[in-house]
Design goal:
This protein has 19 helices and no strands. It is mainly alpha-helical.
Length: 409
C-alpha cells in the first residue's frame, strides 16, 4: 500500500513539473506536455513485459526490481538538472515510470492474494484510497518545492542579459534536484527493507492449459475493445486536464493568483477523486454501473464546457470539479469491459491496461492546440473524450449474443 502512495505521489508531481520545466528548459506547451508522454508511455511499454517477468521471478523480486528501477530514474534527475537537457529529464522520467509500472503490475495481484480472499476487495479499496491520498498531497507539495511564491513575469525574463538568463535557468533546473534525490532515497530504502524483510512469497496456482487464451482472441469481443478505448479516453482526459490547470490559470490572468497558488486546484481535483471513490462504493450498490458512467460522462462534459466559456476562479473551480465526476469511472469501465469474458478474462485484463497510453497522447494534443490557437481551445480534446465515454456507457459496453457463444464454447 505504501507503494501505491509513492506511485500516485510521483505521478501527480508531473502536473507541477510541466509548467516548471516549461520555464527552466524554455519549452512550448506541446514540448512541456511530453512529460506525461514519457511517464505514461513507459507504463504502456513496460506493463505487459512486467507481468511476464513477475510470473517467472515472483512478486517479491518484482517489487524489489520496480523499486530499484524507479529509484534510478529519480536519481537521474540530478544529472539532468546539471545539463538542463530536456530529453535527459524525459529519459529520467521514463525510467522512473518503468519502475512504477513494474510495481503497479506487481502490487495489485499481490494485495489480493496476501490474506483472506474474501477481504481482497477491501484491501484493494484501502490501497486505492492511500494512493489517492498521495495524489492529493503531490500537487501541493510539488508547488511549494518547484514554483515561486511570486511569479516571475516573462517580460522580466526577457530583460535578462545572456549571463543572467543562464544563471536564472540553471537555478530553476536545480530546484528539482533535492525533491527527486529524496524520492530516490526513499525508494532505495524501501527496496533494502523489502530485500531483508521476510515477505511471504505467494505462487499462483497453475492455470489449466485450456484456460490460457491467445492474445489475438480478445479481438472477438467488441465490448472489451471499446473498453480499452474508454480507458484510453478516461486516462487521457484526466491527465490532460490536470496537466494544464496551472497553465490555464496563468492564461486567465487572475490578479494575485500565482502559479504556486493555482496548484491548489489540482489538489482539489484529486481530493474530489478521493471523495468520489469513497462515496462511489455506496452509489454503485444502488444504481447500475452503465447509468452511473453515463451520468459521470455528462457531468464531466458539462463542467469542462462551462470552464471553457467562463473565466476567473469559477472557471478553475469547474475544472477542479471534474475530479468528482471521473473518480469512479475506472472501476466501472473495467468491470463492464471484463463482463462475460469467462476464460478470456486474464487476457482481456492485460489488454485493458494498454489503454493507459491515453495519458501519453492526449496532453501533447492539448499542448499543440494551445500553441497554435490558445489554451482554452485545448480543452476541446477532453470534451471529445467524455463523448466517447458516454457512447461506451450507452452502447459500447453491451455484450452481443455472438460474443456470449464464444465464451460458452
Amino acid at each position: 500500500m505504501l507503494l501505491m502512495f509513492f506511485w500516485n505521489l510521483s505521478r501527480n508531481i508531473n502536473d507541477v513539473l510541466i509548467p516548471h520545466l516549461k520555464r527552466a528548459c524554455e519549452l512550448t506547451d506541446f514540448e512541456s506536455s511530453l512529460v506525461q508522454s514519457a511517464f505514461f508511455g513507459a507504463y504502456f511499454i513496460v506493463a505487459l513485459p512486467a507481468g511476464w517477468y513477475i510470473q517467472k521471478k515472483g512478486y517479491r523480486t518484482g517489487i524489489i526490481t520496480g523499486l530499484i528501477v524507479a529509484a534510478l530514474g529519480a536519481f537521474l534527475f540530478f544529472p539532468a538538472a546539471e545539463t538542463r537537457i530536456y530529453s535527459f529529464f524525459l529519459a529520467a522520467l521514463f525510467i522512473m515510470a518503468a519502475g512504477f509500472a513494474i510495481l503497479e503490475v506487481t502490487a495489485s495481484p499481490y494485495i489480493t492474494k496476501l490474506g483472506d480472499p474474501d477481504g481482497a476487495s477491501s484491501r484493494l479499496s484501502l490501497s486505492a484510497a492511500i494512493g489517492s491520498l498521495g495524489a492529493t498531497i503531490a500537487p501541493f507539495l510539488a508547488a511549494k518545492l518547484l514554483l515561486h511564491e511570486v511569479d516571475i513575469e516573462q517580460t522580466t525574463i526577457d530583460s535578462f542579459s545572456s549571463a543572467e538568463l543562464q544563471t536564472f535557468l540553471t537555478g530553476e533546473a536545480d530546484l528539482v534536484k533535492a525533491p527527486y534525490l529524496i524520492l530516490g532515497g526513499i525508494l532505495a530504502l524501501i527496496a533494502i527493507v523489502v530485500l531483508f524483510v521476510n515477505l511471504p512469497e505467494i505462487k499462483d496456482g497453475d492455470d489449466n492449459s485450456s484456460e490460457k487464451k491467445p492474445l489475438k482472441d480478445i479481438l472477438k469481443f467488441k465490448h472489451t475493445l471499446y473498453g480499452v478505448g474508454a480507458e484510453f479516453f478516461y486516462v487521457g482526459a484526466e491527465v490532460g486536464i490536470v496537466s494544464f490547470i496551472i497553465r490555464y490559470a496563468k492564461w486567465l490572468d487572475i490578479p494575485d493568483l500565482t502559479e504556486q497558488n493555482s496548484a491548489i486546484f489540482i489538489t482539489i481535483f484529486m481530493a474530489l477523486v478521493l471523495l468520489g471513490r469513497l462515496v462511489g462504493v455506496y452509489i454503485l450498490n444502488i444504481f447500475k454501473p452503465a447509468r452511473v458512467l453515463a451520468f459521470c460522462s455528462i457531468g464531466a462534459f458539462a463542467m469542462v464546457s462551462i470552464a471553457m466559456t467562463s473565466s476567473g476562479y469559477f472557471s478553475l473551480g469547474c475544472l477542479a470539479s471534474v475530479g468528482l465526476f471521473t473518480s469512479i469511472v475506472y472501476p466501472i469501465i473495467f468491470s463492464l469491459s471484463m463482463k462475460d469474458l469467462g476464460g478470456y478474462t486474464k487476457t482481456g485484463s492485460s489488454v485493458f491496461l494498454l489503454g493507459i497510453v491515453g495519458g501519453a497522447i492526449v496532453p501533447p494534443l492539448m499542448g499543440y492546440i494551445s500553441d497554435v490557437y490558445n489554451i482554452r481551445y485545448s480543452f476541446i480534446i477532453p470534451l471529445i473524450c467524455y463523448v466517447y465515454l458516454l457512447f461506451f456507457a450507452i452502447a459500447g459496453h453491451k455484450v452481443n449474443i455472438k460474443e456470449r457463444s464464444e465464451v460458452s464454447n
